[in-house]
């Protein structure tokens, strides 16, 4: 059996992964207090929306397989009372999970990053801050109608932006929205990008993502985002705006205690 070694500290984890962008912008010092490695792969802890920690595994097939074999040990070190863990592996290696464990339904998603501003466009002036607290019900209804898989809702502390259009005799209506939050490390992170289904094809997605990406790169030097892998339209948009697809993950709850 291939030996699995334990590492400690973010600096060493970054060195071990060649300063991998996902690790750089998603893993904190606290999460990197303990991680695991074998030739060709590394497993590390991550969390996003909650404090419950998950396991991400990066590397080649042989190395990832060795770390998955050691998953019960890794899981025990993180939390000996939990019987199931969410595990993320490169999508092409997802079958390795099924060969070893009982795997529950999960999702496939991709993580993008850019350090380059998209070209300026006059349409960017249409993108304005949105008060997601006083207009929470409106934003929530818009997301439910036009992107029901959105994982960021109003009132969570993100900065929200919108494109609105005038309506004769009534208040302006939303035609596009997006949330600007941050990763745990502090990088700008865009989420819940939504365009009114009736207005698609007008370039509103390019407008709102392009405008916010320009602001984020100017402010922080980087911008990140994630998307579900089934969304081919979004992928083409992000790549066209200069984003790089850094990771394609399969995330699955795995039963580690038989």
Tags for this model:
alpha+beta, Aminopeptidase, 8 helices, 13 strands, elongated
Quick synopsis:
This protein is α+β, with helices and mostly antiparallel strands. The chain has helices at residues 10-16, 21-26, 61-69, 71-78, 95-100, 136-146, 204-220, 232-240; strands at 5-7, 35-38, 41-46, 54-59, 84-90, 102-103, 107-114, 128-130, 159-167, 170-182, 188-195, 223-228, 244-255.
Gyration radius, rounded: 20 Å
Count of strand segments: 13
The top-level CATH class of the largest domain is: Alpha Beta
Q: How does the major sheet shape up?
A: 13 strands, mixed
Mean pLDDT across all residues, rounded?
95
End-to-end C-alpha gap = 21 Å
Q: Which architecture of the largest domain per CATH? A: 3-Layer(aba) Sandwich
Your description of this structure?
The protein has about 260 residues and is an alpha+beta fold. It has two domains: about 5-110 and about 250-255, 3-Layer(aba) Sandwich (Aminopeptidase); about 115-240, Gcn5-related N-acetyltransferase (GNAT) (Aminopeptidase), CATH 3.40.630. The chain is about 30% helix and about 35% strand. It has eight helices and 13 strands. Strands 1, 2, 3, 4, 5, 6, 7, 8, 9, 10, 11, 12 and 13 form a 13-stranded mixed β-sheet that branches. The radius of gyration is 20 Å and the shape is elongated. The chain starts with a strand and ends with a strand.
